[in-house]
Amino acid sequence: MSTTSTLNAASSADRGPPAWTRWLDLGDRALAVVLLAPAAILLALIIVYPVLRLGYTSFFSLSLTSGLPAEFVGLENYSLMLEDPVFWETTWNTVLITLITVPGALLVGLALALLANLPFGVQWPVRLSLLIPWALPLSFAGLIFAWFFHSEYGVVNDVLNRLGFEGIIWFNSPNWAFAAICLTIIWKTSSFMALIILAGLQTIPRSLYEAADVDGAGRVRQFFEITLPLLKPSIVVALIFRTITALQTFDIPYMMTGGGPGTSTATLAMYIHQNTVSFLDLGYGSALAVVMFALSMCVTAVYLRAIRTKE
Predict the structure, then answer these.
(1) Is 306 a member of any domain?
(2) In this protein, which residues make up the domain named ABC transmembrane type-1 (predicted)?
(3) In terms of DSSP H, where are the helices of 20-84?
């Protein structure tokens, strides 16, 4: 019995560890591939495949209202887009909203973050006030500010009347309607910028400010030479996320004006929604969505390239 057991043990030792444990001996690169594979497969299913499918559909004439089967038309949807005045108007509105609201939200968010970072005795009310606008649904914010800017019983016109100014019919004028939408978006998104910047402020060592005080540097100099440079990574992250969401603006203008007067406040996302959901023109709507996706990727690439250049 003992001789047989000894031989079996020796035979097992020669065979080495069980096959199912060999993955533990993988190199760092192979182990990283194994661990990242599930996440990569999930991303491929929920991101890569829909984008590829979207691009594929954009080459077809596919309208659910026509009752005709999908027909391959190549770049015809894109050529129609170039001749579509509504496409150019909604694209310009989207770019203009981005150019106005992203810097505006950054400046307001930076001020709010600096305020929330002050050494208050009780800090939770200040930080809670930053969370409320961010947590509010976009469509709900649009409805609230549509009431604020209402020409007859809105809060804004009531304040103007009390100050001796004449009320404004906000949503009958393209310029005033656009201004109201931009103000609403800045209010809604500045809290998101503030939360990211506040997280960056928390990482700045207090010893840097103490050393600057010893050297005689004032608050303004400390801000531009310590705070702002060390906040650059946080600001860039906030700008990337805010710019992408600005290019996809839909809820607030949809709830406030519905794109009116006419299409003067309509965005590219609203035009995509109109073609795909209202008109059921999936081919042309997919082409519009591809353009918006490409625009978002180009903006992200510009930000990332700027970061690498500065480094």
Answers:
(1) yes
(2) 91-303
(3) 28-43, 49-57, 76-82
pLDDT tens for each residue of 80-116: 999 999 999 999 999 999 999 999 999 999 999 998 8
Question: By the 8 A CB rule, do 244 and 302 touch?
Answer: no
Shared-domain flag, residues 31 and 172? no
The mean pLDDT of 193-213, rounded to a whole number, is 90
Which position has the token pair 């709010």? 112
- The range of the structural domain enclosing residue 99 comes to 80-310
Look at the alpha carbons of 76, 80, 83, 87 in this order and tell me if their dihedral is positive or negative. negative
Contact status, residue 270 vs residue 215, Cβ threshold 8 Å: no
Q: Is residue 74 part of a domain?
A: no
pTM comes to 0.84
For residue 104, what are the contacts with CB-CB under 8 A and spacing of at least 6? 182, 186, 190
Residue 239, both tokens:
């700008």
Q: In this predicted model, what pLDDT tens digit does every residue of 268-306 receive, in sequence order?
A: 999 999 999 999 999 999 999 999 999 988 988 888 787
The contacts of residue 88 (CB under 8 Å, 6+ apart) are none
Residue 72 lies in a domain: no
- Check whether residue 41 and residue 102 sit in a common domain: no
Both 137 and 262 in one domain: the answer is: yes
